[in-house]
Amino acid sequence: MTDDLTPDQIEEMRFRNELERSHKASLAVAGFLQRRGWQVEVPETVIRPRFEDRHKYGDKGDVFMWKDDVPRRKVEVKWRSFDFTGEDNFPYQTIIVDRATKSGVLSDLYFNVCRALTHSAIVVTALSKQFWKTVTLFDRKKGHEVMVFECPKQHADFVELQPKPKALPNPFFGHCQCGDPGMFFAHGKWFCNEHRVA
Predict the structure, then answer these.
(1) How many domains does the chain have?
(2) pTM of the model
(3) CB-based contacts of 145, cutoff 8 Å, min separation 6
(4) What is the 3-state secondary structure (H, E, C) of 25-94?
(5) pLDDT (mean) for 172-189
(6) Helix%, strand%, coil% for the chain, nearest 5
(7) How far apart are CA 40 and CA 31, in angstroms?
């Protein structure tokens, strides 16, 4: 299928797929922050019309968060292609924070979200920047080296993004009003043999 495509077209397909996954990760982070009382904004995803226009479009931030007494904060979200639930099974000793050559101000928070969108490593710039190192890595997807900031994973917070579902009452078992196990269900209630209604 991709045999007939130019390298630019293949790069464009890769970019659009990653953009879609990244947006899902941003929504998971926004939900996590909202459940903790933050106001959030997820900027609209604008897909460039053509690969050639890529330099006209930039990333202004994935999520913004604020409270009445806390000014607006910029949050960067990175969707990772592997799963983890905490520091113990995060597969690397460091967490990629951001490109070191990126122009502009650093984000206040960086979320590295696992593939399943269930957990994240959070790097808080103000608390961890003193431990960051600048390293050069080879980006397999883009085919060239990039300079990035890395943070040792022990200086990140690992969180569960999605709340565990609450146990639902078992619709197949209940108790009669007298406290005995219910044997019959009628009119939205359980009844034992003694209190069974017709």
Answers:
(1) 2
(2) 0.71
(3) 136, 137, 138, 139
(4) HHHHHHHHHHHCCCEEECCCCCCCCCHHHHHHCCCCCCEEEEECCEEEEEEEEEECCCCCCCHHHCCCCE
(5) 66
(6) 25, 30, 40
(7) 9
Q: Name the amino acid, one letter, at 125.
A: T
Report how far residue 45's alpha carbon sits from residue 24's, in angstroms, rounded to the nearest whole number.
Answer: 11
Of 158, 163, 41, which Cα lies nearest the Cα of 111?
A: 158
6 token code pair: 């130019």
Q: How far apart are CA 7 and CA 64, in angstroms?
A: 34
The verdict on 115 and 48 lying in the same domain is yes
Domain that holds residue 135: 2-160
Q: Which residues pair with 6 in a beta bridge?
A: none
Structure tokens at 9: 């077209």
Tens digit of each residue's pLDDT (9 = 90 or more) over 48-99: 555 565 555 555 678 999 999 889 999 999 999 999 999 999 999 999 999 9
Q: Are residues 134 and 176 in the same domain?
A: no
Question: Which CATH number is 77's domain given?
Answer: 3.40.1350
CB 84 within 8 A of CB 122: no
- Where does residue 70 fall: left (phi above 0), alpha (psi -120 to 50 degrees), or beta otherwise? beta
- Token pair listed for 106: 């650093």
Residue 89, C-beta contacts closer than 8 angstroms, at least 6 positions apart: none
pLDDT tens digit sequence for 28-38:
999 999 999 99
Angle at 104 between CA 147 and CA 23, to 5 degrees: 80
Q: What is the DSSP letter of 194?
A: T
